[in-house]
Each structure stands twice: as C-alpha cells, then as structure tokens.
Design goal:
mainly alpha, two-stranded antiparallel sheet
C-alpha cells in the first residue's frame, strides 16, 4: 500500500480510534506544559512567560518592560498612546488591588506574536514574521509589532470580514456570496484608508444606488434588513417595507443596545426604552425602497439591486404600532433619548434638502452610546469580553464592570476623530493585553473575568481558522512572484476559502451573526480531523512539511519547524523528547518518513492550542 498515511488509510471505527490516539498523544504532551488547561483551573507559570520582555515571580508578574514605538514615519510615540495606555494600566491595577487580585503572569514573545497577529490581521504569524519580530529590540518589539500589523496589507481584509459579518450576519441571501463580497470590498477600502468610524457608520446608514457599483457595497447593509413587504394598498401611507430587522440591527451594532424587545412592549431590562422609541427609530427608515429582489435563481446568481428613497410614501414620517392592550398608536420619527432623558431628537418631516436617513445618521453618531458601543465591542474583541458582556447588550441590569475607564476611553475615542487604529494601539499596548490566560487562586473564578487580570481564551472565527491553516500549511507568497502568478494563487485561495468557510459556518458556526464559541463537538472534531482540505494542504508537495524536511538536517529541526508553523513557538524540551521517542508515530506500518511528519503536523493543527486564541 503506497503512502499508507494514518490520516487517509483506515476507515470506520478502526480509523477513528487511531485518529483519537494520535490526537490524545499531542494533547498529553501539551498538558505537560499547561496549554491544555482552561481558565479557572489554575496552572503553573513554569516555563511560560519567561520571554525577554517579561519576568515572573511567585504570585504574579513584575513590571512589564515595554517601550512604546512611534507610528511609522514618526520619531516619538504618540502622546495619546502614552496617556491612554497609562490610564488603562492604572485603572485596572487599582481594581486588582481593591479586589485583592494578583494578575496572571505575562506571556512570552512567541505567544504574543500569535495573539496579536490573530487579533489585528486575522491569522497566526508565518515563521519568517516571527524571525523578523525576534530581531527587533527586546523592549520595543511588541509595540513595533503592533505598528507593523496595523500597517500590514492584510489588516483591511481582516476588519472588513469582521464588520461584514456584524452588519450582514452569516445567514440568508446577504450572509454569503455576491452581496456579502460586495460589502467586504467596500469595507476593505474604508479600513485601508483608516476612515473614521463615524464616517463609515454615516455612509452605511445613508448609502443609496446600485450594489453592482464596485464602490457602493455599503448599500447592502440596508438592503439586507428591510424585512416584510407592506401590502401595496398601504404603501403610500406606511412605506414599502416594515424595516423592523434594520431598526434592531442599527442600534445593536452601533449603540450596543438591543431594542428588539421594545418592538412589542417596554424593554424589560431597560427602564428608559419604551415601545414608542423602537418605532420612533423605525419611522426614519420608512421611505426606503429596494429595486429588484434578492431571489435565488437556479444557478445561484444574485441579481443586481438598487437602494433609493421614495419621498412619495410615508409623508408624515409616522408609523402605527399595536400596544400590549390591543390599542393602536401612532408615533413620529424620533431617535433614542440620551441617558437620563425621556425624549430623543425628533425629525421634522417638512424639512427640505436633507433625507431622513441623513438625519438618522447624524443623531446616531452624536448619541452618547455611539463611542461607548464601539469601545466596548473592540475591548471585547481583544480581551475576550467587554466591559459590558455581551458587547451589544447595554441595559439597566448589565452595567459596565469599569464605568470610569469605559467613559474615558469613549470620550478620547471621540476626541481623536473615531480613529480605530488609535483605539487598537491603546488596548494592545496595555499590560492587561499581555497577560496569560492561566489563572491563579486569586483570579480563577468566572466572576473574576470582569477584572481582566488574565486573558480570556477565544475560539478562532471561521475566517481566522481558514487564514491560520493557510499560513501554517503553505509558505507566504514569494516577493519575486509575477503579478499573474500572484493573482492565480489569490484566485485559487479565494475559491478554497469559500468552500472551506461554507463547511465551517455550517458545522462550527452561528448563522445569526454572533461570534461562535468552541465547544468541542464531534462534528467539529471530525471536520478538522478528516476534512479533505486540511489533508490536502498538509500533504502538498510545496507545503510546510515538505519544505521542513528538505531544509533540515535532523528530525529535531523538522519538528521545530512544524511547531513554529502551527503553534508559532518551538517545542519545549519535554515535548521534543517525547515526540522523538514516539517516532515513528505508526509502529508496524511501512510508511514514508514524510507521512510520519504529516501526521505529527496534523495533530498539532487539531490541538486546542491551535484552535484557540489564548
């Protein structure tokens, strides 16, 4: 039997038992160095966190010796970064002291480059990037890495993917395919130019025209959420669509407030949010008209759509809604009130020269919750949970864990022109972002998560998982590659990406636009362990395994390169000795040396250490 690889040879129960055996082998190796543990279970700091930028001591970390790097082209670090990093550090340290919490130890440089790369550009690091990082001055390398990642060509695509999912979800006609891709292209351009967050939000709310225009993908946000069609005989008075889904999506994404409960009654957890306020926001949207329908033709081709405002309908900017007592009430366009106020700004339907959606966008970006919602969302993305968690559910019963810090970050985010890169610098350069996920006796309870004294592990999103598998199994594109060859490679990757994401989202994911959580189901395990895509990538003649073998002088060097590619770190001494002792991994089978290393690499890619951002 040729190439009798453990990954492809047996079928049925026997094959699964062998797969499980190898999987458990790697997990047992990893458990010896703490990576198999989960937050809340404690763990030893031994052998971890001893990179050149950190020190450990019994009971927690000493001062992390970080020197902030300047932005590219500048000589000094920005004053706002210096000030805001100090603010974050001081506020959290005050809270730790008040709650008698000792923070976890600091992670080492290998774990940091993996964490920061996943969070900022959406994938693990290439070994060449790790080598570049390690050549930087010890005390500046983490801050320099953050600057390098913020300037990376993959930064816009990462944030475009995130925002496309938040805006459109992963479900329905707009969740995948043509319309979703149009939004990604538009968002990618916004993030490449580092457009201010309020400007991006305004363009999404006010967009109009054809989505076939390559520069107009923003229209798909509103087109995706128009809701039910209003009967034709009522359209002149009430508009073309009910616009209920969009009403909820706007406040949830941009204000961190879930108003959908107020559609039918007063919000049960938000005393100031009444039923009329849901419909007041809804009334701003009742002149939206969609030309074309996103039907699913037999061949899966999506027709072009156009978004316009029809000023001939809903002239008085009012809506009718049914109250719980059965009475019908009318309410005119009115935005959500600021905190502590009973009424919000109201639309004058007789005002000329400004569309209702332009007025809506103005009220939205001026609302107190607009910067808070974004800061909380970004904090949650980097730290594993927000000051308010879930990050889009501010309410009376879900108050921020650190209100002063949230308020100050939000005020400065607004002051600095809603610059997302500045916000990322503040968070990623703070001490809390450099802490390990491994708990100690003072911070190992679930309730301690609100103190941010340790990192909370996050499952990789489907997009992060695909990009990380690609980075682990294939070398980066050569700089000498021709434009045609580069484009061909990009097209092949995009095709593979679409196929892979379709399977991941179905088996891993949440089709309601929420971030997924890792729960180790059998379906997930089998998809990763037996999927054709991952096996083909591992076995590729130009892939990581083949290159590691051809460029190494010993089994130890091959193993080290596989660990670095998959886990962004070299194996620890105990791991290396254990793997060498267990090679060949398939005793009794006449398999090639390459297949042995392929199985080791496959096991690393199926480990918790790979599947989690820790």
């Amino acid at each position: 039997m040729t190439h009798a690889s453990l990954r492809t040879w047996w079928s049925g129960c026997a094959r699964l038992w062998l797969l499980a055996g190898l999987f458990l082998l790697v997990l047992s190796i990893m458990s010896r160095m703490g990576m198999a543990q989960v937050p809340g279970k404690g763990g030893s700091a031994k052998g971890v966190g001893k990179g050149p930028a950190s020190k450990t001591q019994p009971g927690g970390p000493t001062t992390l010796k970080l020197v902030l790097a300047p932005e590219r082209g500048k000589k000094e670090p920005p004053s706002d970064v210096v000030e805001m990093v100090k603010l974050i550090n001081d506020k959290l340290e005050e809270s730790w002291k008040a709650n008698k919490i000792t923070p976890s130890f600091y992670i080492d440089d290998h774990e940091f480059i993996r964490r920061a790369s996943l969070d900022i550009i959406g994938r693990i690091a290439y070994p060449t990037e790790i080598a570049e990082y390690m050549r930087d001055p010890v005390e500046k390398r983490r801050s320099l890495l953050i600057e390098r990642l913020l300037s990376h060509e993959e930064y816009p695509r990462q944030w475009a993917n995130l925002w496309a999912n938040w805006l459109l979800t992963r479900a329905g006609d707009f969740g995948r395919g043509k319309y979703h891709n149009q939004m990604v292209i538009w968002l990618e351009d916004q993030f490449a130019q580092n457009k201010p967050y309020d400007e991006i939000a305004t363009r999404l709310i006010t967009a109009k025209g054809k989505n076939s225009d390559p520069n107009n993908g923003a229209v798909n946000f509103i087109l995706a959420h128009v809701g039910e069609v209003i009967p034709r005989d009522k359209q002149r008075e009430e508009g073309h669509f009910e616009m209920v889904p969009l009403t909820s999506r706007i406040t949830r994404v941009f204000l961190g407030t879930q108003v959908q409960c107020a559609q039918c009654h007063a919000h049960p957890f938000f005393g100031s949010l009444k039923q009329e306020q849901f419909w007041g926001v809804n009334a701003f949207l009742r002149q939206v008209k969609r030309e074309g329908a996103p039907m699913r033709p037999a061949k899966g081709v999506r027709p072009d759509l156009t978004l316009v405002d029809d000023e001939g309908v809903n002239g008085d900017a009012s809506v009718f809604f049914e109250m719980r007592n059965g009475k019908v009430r009318m309410w005119q366009a009115e935005f959500l009130p600021p905190p502590g106020k009973e009424r919000g700004p109201r639309l004058d339907p007789k005002k000329k020269g400004v569309s209702r959606r332009e007025e809506l966008a103005k009220y939205l970006v001026e609302h107190d919750m607009f910067p808070k919602g974004m800061v909380n969302r970004m904090w949650g993305l980097f730290m594993g949970r927000g000051f308010v968690n879930p990050t889009d559910d501010f309410n009376d019963n879900n108050q921020p864990s650190h209100p002063e810090l949230l308020n100050e970050l939000s005020a400065r985010f607004k002051q600095y022109n809603f610059d997302q890169k500045k916000l990322i610098r503040w968070i990623a350069n703070s001490n809390a972002y450099h802490l390990s996920y491994v708990a100690n006796p003072t911070n190992d309870k679930v309730e301690h998560e609100t103190q941010f004294s340790r990192m909370i592990m996050k499952a990789l999103s489907p997009e992060q998982l695909f990009e990380s598998l690609s980075a682990a199994t294939q070398p980066p594109p050569s700089k000498s590659m021709s434009d045609a060859a580069r484009q061909k490679l990009a097209n092949e990757k995009e095709k593979s990406r679409n196929e892979w994401l379709a399977a991941l989202i179905t088996n891993f994911g949440d089709d309601e636009g929420n971030e997924i959580t890792f729960n180790g189901t059998i379906v997930q395990a089998l998809l990763m362990m037996n999927g054709k895509n991952i096996n083909d990538a591992i076995s590729a003649p130009t892939g990581t395994v083949a290159n590691a073998i051809s460029t190494s002088r010993s089994p130890s060097q091959v193993i080290e390169k596989l660990y670095l590619a998959a886990l962004n770190r070299p194996p620890r001494r105990t791991e290396l000795n254990r793997v060498l002792a267990d090679l060949p991994l398939r005793r009794g089978f006449k398999d090639s040396t390459k297949a042995q290393y392929e199985d080791l690499f496959w096991a690393l890619l199926n480990s918790n250490e790979f599947l989690l951002n820790h």
